[in-house]
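Query structure, 224 tokens:
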């Protein structure tokens, strides 16, 4: 039966993620690093469950094209950077998480790793960005005008901050306006995302309760 087949797929994926979790637990003692890896696995499971209800034959990978990616063979059409923090935290355009992510995506843009016009990029973080900040201009409900404003503000303060922040800003400033527009048009920031425990609960619940088809950018904002 279709329902049993779907449940078998999600159970198998859960088992595989559980095996990865045990392997990582044996290698790392840092609670933050382990929590981040578990979050990545559980988030992948949650997104996969919901995507399978829309596209049963979807392909998802972890640490292949990005933290998480949906792809067809060797062509990724959606990549996700997953950032987990233990406890409340703010994220701004001066955060290391942001510039690490942008450096990865800028490198992909320059090397032509993906079809840049079609690839969607998601920064999913448990941290929260201020509503009047640059990152808020990259949320799902923001259009081209806000993204152009974000581009204009994104290179500010290239000489300050940690080395990775300075390097990321310099890489961003080295893009042409057209390249920067293509990159920012493909990015959606999902801040205030469910944490490690809530993501597990959502994944468990979603695997047994069908939900209406929704776009990926709304997955983490969906209730229940």
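Result returned for the query:
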């Amino acid at each position: 039966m279709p329902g049993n087949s779907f449940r078998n797929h999600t159970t198998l994926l859960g088992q595989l993620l559980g095996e990865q979790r045990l392997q990582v637990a044996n290698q790392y003692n840092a609670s933050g690093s382990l929590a981040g890896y578990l979050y990545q696995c559980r988030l992948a499971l949650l997104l996969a469950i919901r995507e399978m209800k829309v596209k049963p034959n979807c392909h998802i990978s972890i640490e292949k094209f990005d933290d998480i990616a949906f792809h067809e063979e060797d062509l990724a059409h959606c990549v996700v950077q997953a950032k987990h923090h233990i406890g409340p935290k703010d994220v701004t355009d001066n955060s290391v998480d942001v510039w690490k992510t942008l450096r990865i995506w800028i490198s992909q843009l320059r090397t032509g790793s993906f079809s840049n016009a079609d690839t969607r990029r998601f920064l999913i973080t448990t941290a929260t960005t201020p509503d009047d900040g640059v990152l808020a201009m990259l949320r799902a409900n923001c259009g081209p005008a806000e993204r152009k404003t974000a581009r204009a503000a994104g290179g500010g303060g290239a000489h300050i901050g940690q080395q990775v922040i300075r390097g990321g800003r310099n890489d961003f400033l080295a893009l042409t306006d057209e390249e920067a527009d293509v990159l920012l048009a493909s990015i959606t920031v999902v801040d205030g995302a469910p944490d490690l425990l809530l993501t597990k609960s959502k994944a468990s619940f979603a695997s047994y309760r069908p939900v209406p088809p929704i776009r990926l950018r709304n997955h983490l904002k969906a209730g229940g």
